[in-house]
From TrEMBL:
Protein name: ATP synthase A chain
Source organism: Nonlabens ulvanivorans (Persicivirga ulvanivorans)
Enzyme Commission designation: 3.6.3.14
Top EC class for this record: hydrolase
Keywords assigned by UniProt, alphabetized: Hydrolase, Membrane, Signal, Transmembrane, Transmembrane helix
Stretches that traverse the bilayer: 157-175
GO function term, MF aspect, one: hydrolase activity
Residues of the signal peptide: 1-23
Length: 229
């Protein structure tokens, strides 16, 4: 039973991560920081504070922790890069997001084999063959670049994978305890009421007594993955 649960949880996690990577509408990553550089990196008004918080909660190709201005007034970003995985006209390409140097305006070009990429509003574009800079039309849409199929490990996907790994560890330990004990110990005593709540308040009433066990993994998976939303 537990093996079937982990299989369902694993595939549900992979599906959710893939769907999130493709469906998430990304907005500017560090563009907001560039806008406030003229004020020394300060965020003063309530509207600016709310916008700054909302901006940094959005998905991105970097895991950005915080920013600050050094003594020379240069804006510094603290965080770590994530893998960029795209399917381009030259096939599958892989590189780290640090190669964009926090640029989100299409100014920095990244060469990967014979393909050239840039990042614009947190979307990866491949430049046409021979292009050395991205050009825009009157509506600021790229005219010599096209979107690529993006399979990157973004901040949201990283969070999903991290929570999924923690779920496998803690629920795996809980399953082992049930094999030898009637009542779990340690952190398992915290998890058991949550599992029972999902079983008694969600799975049984909606699926029925005969089939709810088959879908317990899916329900528990969705409940705990919501922690990353």
């Amino acid at each position: 039973m537990y093996r079937a649960y982990f299989k369902i949880a694993f595939f549900a996690l992979i599906f959710t991560a893939f769907a999130t990577a493709q469906a998430q509408e990304h907005n500017g990553d560090y563009a907001f920081d560039d806008e406030i550089e003229s004020d020394g990196g300060k965020v003063n008004t309530k509207e600016e504070i709310d916008s700054y918080i909302d901006h940094h909660l959005k998905d991105s190709h970097d895991f950005h922790l915080f920013s600050y201005s050094d003594d020379a007034g240069v804006r510094k970003h603290v965080g770590f890069s994530l893998p960029v995985i795209v399917w381009s006209s030259e096939g599958l390409k892989f590189f780290m997001s640090s190669k964009f140097h926090h640029d989100d305006d299409g100014k920095v070009l990244v060469k990967a084999g014979d393909a050239t990429f840039t990042k614009l509003h947190s979307k990866i574009y491949e430049l046409d063959s021979g292009a050395t800079a991205i050009n825009f039309d009157a509506d600021h849409h790229p005219t010599n670049a096209h979107r690529v199929f993006d399979m990157s490990i973004t901040k949201s996907v990283f969070g999903l994978l991290l929570i999924g790994l923690l779920m496998l560890l803690v629920f795996g330990a809980l399953a082992k305890q049930y094999k030898t004990k009637k009542i779990p110990t340690g952190f398992g005593r915290v998890l058991e009421p949550l599992v029972l709540y999902v079983r008694d308040e969600i799975a049984r009433p909606n699926i029925g007594e005969t089939k709810y066990r088959k879908f317990m993994g899916v329900f528990i998976n969705r409940v705990f993955l919501n922690l990353d939303q």
